[in-house]
Amino acid sequence: MLSRTADCLYWMARYTERAENTARMLDVNHQTSLLPQPSEVLEQSWKKLLTISKLEGAFLSKYDVINRENVLDFMIYETCNPSSIVSCLYAARENARVIRGKITSEVWETQNTTWLELQRILQTRHQADPSRLLEWVKHRCHLFRGVMYGTMLKNEAFYFINVGTLLERADNTARILETKYENETTLGKTYKAKLNDDGSDGELFDFYHWAALLRSVSAFEIYRQIYSDQVTPKQVAELLIFNKQMPRSLVSCVNELIPLVSEVKNQQSKEIERLLGKLKASLDYSDIDEVFAQGLDEFIESFLERINHIADEFSSTYLIPLAVA
Questions:
Q1: What is the pLDDT of residue 195?
Q2: Residue 97: HSE in the Cβ half-sphere, 13 Å Cα cutoff
Q3: Which pTM does this prediction carry?
Q4: Is residue 181 a contact partner of residue 233, using CB atoms and an 8 Å limit?
Q5: Distance CA 231, CA 69 (A)
Q6: Over the stretch 61-91, which tens digit does the pLDDT of each residue have?
Q7: Tens of pLDDT along 280-299?
Q8: Hey, which of 14, 218, 219, 234 would disulfide with 168, CB 3.0 to 4.6 Å?
Q9: Does the CA dihedral 201-34-292-217 come out positive or negative?
């Protein structure tokens, strides 16, 4: 397969997954922002979302104040932000257009219809309900994957799409977990104390905080099936890192990547297989107690560094040189 074709398939999948995961991060922040809490805590939660996405500088070049309305506008609609939902869906559609001959007509029509429907939404963007819009984005990305699995041959094109999806998903699951855990650990004692002083229930806020995180990765019902007791940070982290049956867990993404890379391997891909094998081994032989002893934030930073190194190696091996995310 030509590098140009592989590049478009890979980035079509990554941009689609990135749009969905951006919607998921925004949705969990939007839902928790509706709970009663001090204004400085609310601002910090939106600021952290920008920081973890490495977009704070770009945001501050266009907006004076970090608040819910401005961050939602920047992360959903702003075309100068390459990670905004509009930018991602546009890039996914353009990559699909370039390689229409390598995907089925149903896959192309799904991507194209998503973009056309988004144009209608943009005409009334100021009246749009953020929650409904973010749910629509998630639904359209689900539809893309369902159509892809239902209509495409299990060939190289299929494998490149799935590699792109899983690399992006692993990165974003780690970022979502890191964002919400750091908000909880750095600000938790302060805002829960203030809530209790105001006569509100800080523990109830804590529950909704973690429940919203689970819903952001479609894991709330799964959590209830596995853990019948209270929602706790440690068990949430265990589910999203180590549960092999959880579709968006880190270990699940890595385990699914290994056979996909094997399907497209060539003489230059040994380094990718070695890096993936080492990452899988480190996950297989760790547990949640060890992660918390090390520090969850340190563990996630290490994982992000390793999974993005694998993505860079994959790009340099198979794709167009200097491809930009």
A1: 47
A2: 10
A3: 0.89
A4: yes
A5: 29
A6: 999 999 889 999 999 999 999 999 999 999 9
A7: 999 999 999 999 999 998 99
A8: 14
A9: positive
Cα 308 from Cα 323, distance rounded (Å): 14
d(Cα 102, Cα 105) in Å, to the nearest integer? 9
Residue 281 contacts by C-beta under 8 Å, 6 or more apart in sequence?
A: none
Q: What angle do CA 217, 222, 228 make, to 5 degrees?
A: 130
**250-263 and 270-284 helices cross at what angle (nearest 10)?**
150
The alpha carbon of residue 136 and the mean position of all alpha carbons in its chain are separated, in whole angstroms, by 16
Q: Which of 108, 86, 91, 96 is nearest to 22 (CA)?
A: 86
Quickly state the pLDDT bin for 186 (edges 50, 70, 90): low
Amino acid at 296: L
Lowest mean pLDDT, pick from 134-138, 143-147, 189-193, 279-283: 189-193
Q: Which element (helix H / strand E) includes 20?
A: helix 3-33
Q: Which of 65, 179, 88, 208 is nearest to 141 (CA)?
A: 88
CA 303 to the chain's CA centroid: 14
Q: Which residues contact 277 (CB under 8 A, 6 or more apart)?
A: 258
> Tell me, what DSSP letter sits at residue 244?
T
Lowest mean pLDDT among 41-45, 105-109, 203-207, 296-300: 203-207
> In a 10 Å sphere around its CB, with 0-12 CB exposed, 13-18 middle and 19+ buried, how is residue 127 labelled?
exposed
Residue 129: CB atoms within 10 A of its CB come to: 9
**What residues contact residue 146 under an 8 Å CB cut-off, 6+ apart?**
none
**Is-contact 54 171, C-beta < 8 A?**
no
pLDDT averaged over every residue in the chain: 88
* 112, 15 Cβ separation under 8 angstroms: no
Rounded Cα distance, 305 and 297, in Å: 12
3-state secondary structure of 91: helix
Distance, CA of 114 to CA of 112 (rounded, Å): 5
